[in-house]
Design goal:
There is one protein chain. By secondary structure, this protein is mainly alpha-helical. The longest helix is centred in the last third of the chain and has 37 residues. The radius of gyration is 29 Å and the shape is flat. The C terminus is likely disordered.
Length: 248
């Protein structure tokens, strides 16, 4: 090799490398096919799991989405995200604990509604600001404020991630709490034990009307004194009664 020119030495080394890695192309192709097949099978299994056992599917995916980022946060030293995650987790855990108690405290539905509505609004606003920051950076408007493109893009992407992550997490926790509270308040057959006056019904209707912008869980019910005619969908009422849905 020492007697060869540099160009000839490179050719010999190149030939040795090809001889050493001969057959690896086929192995890489097999690995790609196995990966694609695994993804397809896993997707089919997840879809079947969600359709057949939605409750366990939602619980497992919610737990993973909540806990897995903690590992990367500690490993990569993202202390800002860890602080926000800890604060969100502490308050959400307390709210979820209140929502799963039996009997349900009267102030718990209001607490659950206010907390998750607040997180929804914050996540929505954060996502919009992050999207605007990314678009401004793409159009070069960050230079007007003497901000480096890298810093502006990192800021926008971070806000987008915060808004998306906590928005999805908040939605799943809200649905879970709503399911627990609906099963506690409602009954499978007949009327709930709680009766509502006309004034309380109107206040509740106004409050639930606002909940259309956030995830909701509904359970149809009728108060005492109301009866539904089978097959017609018509409801007849005797005295003071109200028809509505338990909604958060």
């Amino acid at each position: 090799m020492s007697d060869l020119s540099p160009e000839e030495q490179w050719r010999v080394e190149h030939a040795r490398m090809h001889a050493k890695h001969r057959g690896h192309e086929a192995m890489h192709a097999e690995m790609v096919l196995i990966l694609i097949a695994t993804l397809v099978v896993a997707q089919l299994l997840l879809v079947q799991w969600k359709q057949r056992h939605p409750r366990s599917y939602n619980m497992v995916t919610l737990f993973q989405m909540w806990i897995v980022p903690l590992y990367f946060t500690v490993k990569l030293h993202w202390w800002r995200f860890l602080g926000v995650w800890s604060l969100f987790s502490a308050i959400t855990a307390f709210t979820t604990f209140r929502a799963t108690r039996k009997p349900l405290i009267q102030t718990t539905p209001r607490l659950v509604y206010k907390w998750f509505l607040l997180i929804y609004k914050i996540s929505y606003a954060t996502g919009i600001v992050g999207y605007m920051a990314v678009m401004f950076t793409l159009f070069g408007l960050n230079l007007l404020f003497k901000i480096k493109p890298k810093d502006a893009m990192d800021f926008g992407i971070s806000l987008l991630f915060y808004g998306l992550y906590y928005g999805v997490l908040e939605r799943d926790f809200a649905e879970m709490c709503a399911d627990y509270m609906a099963s506690t308040i409602g009954t499978r057959i007949g009327c709930p034990a709680i009766t509502y006056s006309t004034s309380s019904a109107s206040v509740a209707g106004a409050l639930w009307e606002r909940s259309k912008r956030v995830p909701t869980a509904k359970r149809r019910w009728t108060s005492r004194g109301c009866s539904v005619t089978p097959g017609s969908g018509l409801t007849s009422c005797m005295g003071s009664c109200w028809i509505g849905s338990d909604t958060w």
